[in-house]
Amino acid sequence: MSENNAAVRLKGISKTFGHVAANSNVDLEIRHGEILSLLGENGSGKTTLMNMLAGIYYPDEGEIFIDGRPVQIRSPKDAFDNGIGMVHQHFKLIDVFTAAENIILGEEHTGMRINRKETVAKIREICDKYGFEIDFEKKVYDMNVSQKQTLEIVKILYRGANILILDEPTAVLTPQEAEKLFKVIKNMRDAGKAIVIITHKLQEVLSVSDRVAILRKGECVDSIATKDANEKILTEMMMGRKVDLNIERPDPVNPVKRLEIKNLSVRDREGNLALKDVSFVANGGEILGIAGISGCGQKELLEAVAGLAAVESGSIEYLPSGADAPTELVGRNPKQIRELGVVLSFVPEDRLGMGLVGSMGMSENMMLKSYENGNSIFLEQKAPRELAGNIKEELEVQTPDIATPVRKLSGGNVQKVLVGREIAAAPQVLMTAYAVRGLDINTSFTIYHLINEQKQKGVAVIFVGEDLDVLLALSDRILVMCEGRITGLLDARTCTKEQVGLLMTGGMEGGEQNGTN
Amino acid sequence: MAQTKTAKEPFVHVIRKEDTPMLKKWLIRIFAVVAALIVTGVLVFAVTGINPFKIYSSMITGSFGTPRRIRNTIKLMTPLLCLGIGLAPAFKMKFWNIGAQGQMLVGALAASFVALTFRHLPGGLLIPLMGLAGLLAGAIWGVIPAIFRAFWNTNETLFTLMMNYIATFAVMYSVDKWKGESSGFASFKQIAKNAVMPAVLNENFYICTAIVLLLVCLMYIYMKRTKHGYEIAVVGESEKTAVYAGINVKAVMIRTILLSGAVCGLCGFLTVSGIDFTLSSTMNNGFGFTAIVVAWLAKFNPFTMIGTSFMMVFFQNAASEISSMNANATEYLSYVISGIILFFLIGSEFFINYRLVFRKNHEKEGK
After folding, report:
1. Which residue ranges form the domains of chain A, and what is each CATH number?
2. Reported confidence tier of residue A106, pLDDT bands at 50, 70, 90
3. How far is CA A197 from CA A86, A166, A223, A360, B47, in A?
4. Which of residues 325-384 of A touch B (CB under 8 A)?
């Protein structure tokens, strides 16, 4: 029917995993020469839906039409044959190959040798056409995230994709890099390509796309032209109700020095220096935000304080409230740190891999750090069970039972369990890494609220975040990191997003220009 | 680009499912056994010409035919269950201890050595001493690979496997040596009377069975209710999480394998003192390996292992029973049968965890 310029038409697509309906009866149209934002909270089924176009999953029900003809996409190869290319959140590149080699890889050769010159010429043509900057001879392991992403896009274009799907493309980029990306995306659109951007960032949707399709709980709620939309409308469509989008920021409660880090250097598991000569102070009653592109040493910093990473040099001094002499934390393991009466609550980035035991229920996970309490050889089961019950109720954790293995819970609920446990330990220092990653807006606000509560109790909160808007709204001070160094310390109430972005790339303030590599 | 012909929907694709109801799980498993029996029936009939139903009934008489056979079934189950219990904490920790056989053999060797050296001691003293020796020997045999794994991250599967061969030949050597030289013992056929487990209801092994059943309860409590058991579960799930929780992973690993080896060593002692009354490198028929299946099928739950160890013994009895029926039906045929049944049973887990979706015929509605 509406044959206009639909590149892809999805009709009644459904996909279930176990009892969970990831997508149900989704209708969607993707058009040539248009940028479509696929907007939805995490877990709303955006990625699943696009994975069915890319041949990663096969739909349980429904039909896919490309340029009006029905197709079956059973594998990534089928997707490519139909001109569909997807850039996943985790790049699929080979580290030891050059850019050019990665692009050629996977291409079908019918017995012929690769004509390198011709290929490179073809790649160059693509780059020139859309404005990509790429060094063909650079190895992937020498590239930064933004360059890798560019390479992924060029790779897909080289293979003849007309329909491009980008999954959360800006999650790993600085604001400046994101701007650059949007420019090439617009060039591609003008050249007639159909482009889909999966995202949950509203500002991005408004600034780059032509049309927005909103998914909620696996269903496509609506699609509207971006020019008719604003943040408020989109959020309401996403959530299905009105939401207050302002993050509260109470004033710091009589800040006292709680943690002083001096000249700290830490090596990561590969033996590289991940943290270089870092010094700062975290105060009780204050939220210290840490900004930086992921992998810039934030993780190592938190792990070093928690006693999980081996410290190369430097010191971490801890001043519990009421004490007059600081305690040195370097050289102690997590257990000793606890036994000293030093309470560090740490919400690791990798929730199920580290903070929780997936096969255990909520109540057993509550014991993880306290199971040794008491002199009996038997586990104390009553207190953790009560705590689990309380957390389930207070934070509205969606789980059939506190004995249900936490791996069966959704990301947001898993995070609530973890944060709930950490806060229940009545910490003096609360460190969180990407505490709201993968959470819907509602749960995110619950977490922000919990963190603010801790701050008002006089806890020193260290908040490693990825969303600059949130960091700017929630923190009192912002520490910016780049490649294991601190590039700036800003007052979150007065600084701008651009300032932070510049510092994230090793920018000017402090005068030091870090060379890449 | 548009030259691709319309591909067909895949014939079948697999979907994961969760929370299959209990009743359905058991129906799937029962169906698997029935299907296996039909396949084996057809196979047996084709090869030997024996009526399959005669085979099925002889499988049952193999384990339950006479009171003696029932006693024999329990006698075989006892060491197998004991080894399964020994493996449970190691496997729960994802430490792939393939060395139960060796740990059992050194346990038996140590117990025999004590029985031989202190044969003048009264039984009340000698037997506990033998038990202690068996425990210690098994624990030491197990902990060697554990130490290497904890400190140098060696592969415990290969290491424990290799330790089995050393144990086997050490037992062969000792049997040979003790046969030649011992004065009180004409040959190393039987241990001294005072080293034999006292008989209850005319059977010496009943005490062993009682000890193993007690172990089942203790191990269940240890794994489910104690702090040690909790640490084992956390380490097994993720060493990273264990470190984060402040657990000393190396210590937990070594402690757990000490326990695992000790229980397997104890099994060696029980076999020498209460079941075989002698030492042999072929004792318990390679149960050290069968116990791996017992532990896995029971998902490391000690109580479920009573059932799985019974099942393995049942198959073994059925095997020897079938082999006596017909010249064509050798013992080996019956191993084929038990293999097929196990294959169906383990394979049925796939249908408990996944669902198959077949291509539907909707040519028409595609318009």
Report:
1. 6-239 (3.40.50.300), 256-343+426-504 (3.40.50.300)
2. low
3. 10, 5, 14, 36, 63
4. 333-335, 338, 346, 348, 350, 353-360, 364, 367-369, 371-372, 377-379
